[in-house]
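Convert to structure. Protein one:
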Amino acid sequence: MVPALKQTGGEFCRFFAVGVGATLLHLVVYMLLNWLFDLSEQDALGITLTYAAGYAVSFVANYVVSLRWTFRTRGSVGKGLGFAFSHLVNAGLHLLLLNFFCSLGAGDALSMLLIWLTPWLVDMLPVLGRPESLLPLPVYLIVVPVNFLMVRYFLKR
């Protein structure tokens, strides 16, 4: 395998692992805040704010781990600003898509599908049957590849 391709593949695998952790942290904070404030899919502003708060918490953890482990590089002001810029674009894309999918009723559709496919899972974890809990899933399918390319660019240059 070409060394540069092998390095990029390893970086993407580490990026994916860190991203899974950051995504789980994001979702836990988002769901916890939704539960604490008793929000539903109809509370668009509240959902947007709790989503943004979860994103902010995961952003900090993601930056530290991305520098030290994913891309194995040292931090600098320029890299920090580039990382912040890429995540600002990413956060905007997240919120835009979250509200877009909310307006389409994607949470309801995903909730019904999950209840139909795995009723036992929803019985065990009722939060998974709530439409607002599932709204981030289609968002992640779009933003993860875009984010990898932007973060890699800013941290590896």
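Protein two, convert as well:
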Amino acid sequence: MSSQIDTKPPQNVAHNAEKGLKLRDEHDKGGTDVGVARARDLKNRENLSENTINRMVQYFARHEVDKKADGFGNDNNPSAGYIAWLLWGGDEGKDWAEKIQNKFEKEKDD
């Protein structure tokens, strides 16, 4: 089945990923190799597979708790979780990935 769903990350998601890479560089913390790879794909606005979209949704579901940490959202003294969250596209990445995942699910139901 060939999908017509656009899986190119929007600009705001790409921006968050780029910011995450910059903060990770500056503060030498946050994210795994997988998170860094994801950030590069998002920053470059690569079309992502359905599998990757699903992994993004799973990441955000697991890491929502990171938002409670000190330094989450602080660009001057960011928590590792904040940097990792941005690497995966930030809040906009979460919303976008969930929206795309729903489109894939709807397509399967049709």
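The chain has a mean pLDDT of 95. The two ends are 12 Å apart (CA to CA).
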